[in-house]
Amino acid sequence: MIKKILVANRGEIAVRIVRACAEMGIKSVAIYADADRHALHVKKADEAYNIGPDPVGGYLNAHRIVNLAVATGCDALHPGYGFLSENAQLAEICARREIIFIGPSPEAIRRMGDKTAAREAMIAAGVPVVPGSDGNLKNVAAAVKLAKKIGYPVMLKATSGGGGRGIRRCNSEEDLTRAFERVVSEATKAFGSADVFLEKAIVNPRHIEVQVLGDKQGNVIHLFERDCSIQRRHQKMIEIAPSPQLTDEQRAAVCELGVRAAKIVNYENAGTVEFLFDQSGNFYFMEMNTRLQVEHTVTEQITGVDIVQEQIRIAEGQSLSYRQEEIQRRGYAIQFRINAEDPKNDFLPSFGRITRYYSPGGPGVRTDAAIYTGYEFPPHYDSMCAKLTVWALTWDKVLARARRALFDMGVHGVKTTKPFYLEILATPEFQAGKFDTGFIEQHPELLNYSIRRPTADLAAAIAATIAAHRGL
Ligand code: ADP
Ligand code: ADP
Ligand code: MG
After folding, report:
1. Nearest-atom index, ligand 1, CA of 163
2. 280-298: per-residue pLDDT in tens?
3. CATH code of 167's domain
4. Is residue 206 within 8 Å of 276, Cβ to Cβ?
5. pTM (2 decimals)?
6. What pLDDT digit, counting tens, does each position of 218-271 carry?
7. For the chain, what is the radius of gyration of the CA atoms?
8. What's the gap in Å between 328 CA and the centre of ligand 2?
9. Centre of ligand 2 from the C-alpha of residue 286, in Å
10. Looking at the domain assignment, is residue 60 inside a domain?
11. Which one of 64, 83, 224, 426 has the fewest beta carbons within 10 angstroms of its own beta carbon?
12. How many DSSP H helices and E strands does the chain contain?
């Protein structure tokens, strides 16, 4: 049984893991760089240790973090998302030092972390993938030759990419020739690997992903899907479970593909299999994230499964708490990533002092935040400062609740994406549950909002549009 966990992360996800530990009677140990001295995860964990002046480097130093886990008497380590969460070496170092790594095996991390290796594994398992290159591209000439064969537009992607970076859509040979060196150098800098590959660009796709859980006994189940099509520059902004765009048959099909993908790599712990869903109803495997995901909250809200606690139980060697047929879903959940960014200024990060923070409440509202009144939001990290997740029994009720909760939430002192989300909520497409990954680019007018108070008129207008789309 795990008694003490080192949380190798920061921000809201570190707080989320500390909360799971507290409910399970497990002690938690936080780590923090100097810039994070006043961060929330430091206050919430049972113990906290300074890892030095480098704001980012400290969170990436696997040897030092595992040493700290050993020195502080931890028996396990949770990597969260980002940072070292998909680093197979961290999992190996943990194994050598007899610290339980709360995540999949180093082999599964390696295989799925490499997008071309993952594609190969999926092809072998009969899971459809986006048409594209066999392995990595040797040079720009090879890229041009292949693109000619599969047809433009194509996506040029970094093999070890993530977080929406290292991806470029190319509409022509000129685009591709121009983008190639740039993506290679970006990938080298950001991910330490120059490998790139090509995929056909799916036109107006929806991003549908399946949450899976696997235990050490070989059981794999899914917790249904999430729709993460509301994205800006390939980065998710709003996530929904279940997808309002799938029929029950499509849902069953994609969830089965997710489980098949996980089984083929003997996947253990929590993971996400990402698919693109085209306008003709086909699913294509895109990648697998071998870690806890930012948007796991929406799945927790519709299934009632605590995914972080399940991760810990799996790492302990216990079998899954649920059989597939025991997983029930109820209602809809939507998560909004509240980023400290100014939507009106090209989403420029807006760091600084949070002069006032009010966490919204009431029925069906959940916040996972890293901020508090008086906190100096540091400039060295991700701009996401909170996640707002709302749940309701029906689609129309969750829309109304989302609007109410966004107005209820108060983040002052920095600009945030909150007013932009209110605009998205007010569109007929979003309310009808019909949107693809191009939605934000196709609606530049959504940035023309002015900060306003909820008036009874506005509420009534939105309620009327929602009523028109009832029945989802
Ligand atoms: P999710 O799929 O959980 O929504 P994101 O793609 O938003 O994840 O990434 C979550 C965090 O992890 C972000 O801070 C992102 O920059 C970081 N991240 C994701 N993949 C990588 C990677 N391959 N290398 C470095 N950082 C990554
Ligand atoms: P990351 O590792 O950064 O999450 P993904 O491979 O998951 O990268 O792609 C991120 C996003 O980029 C997808 O959600 C989708 O919007 C877009 N995308 C990726 N591949 C394609 C493709 N072949 N066609 C169209 N859009 C794509
Ligand atoms: Mg992805």
Report:
1. 6
2. 999 999 999 999 999 999 9
3. 3.30.1490.20
4. yes
5. 0.95
6. 999 999 999 999 999 999 999 999 999 999 999 999 999 999 999 999 999 999
7. 22
8. 29
9. 7
10. yes
11. 64
12. 16, 22
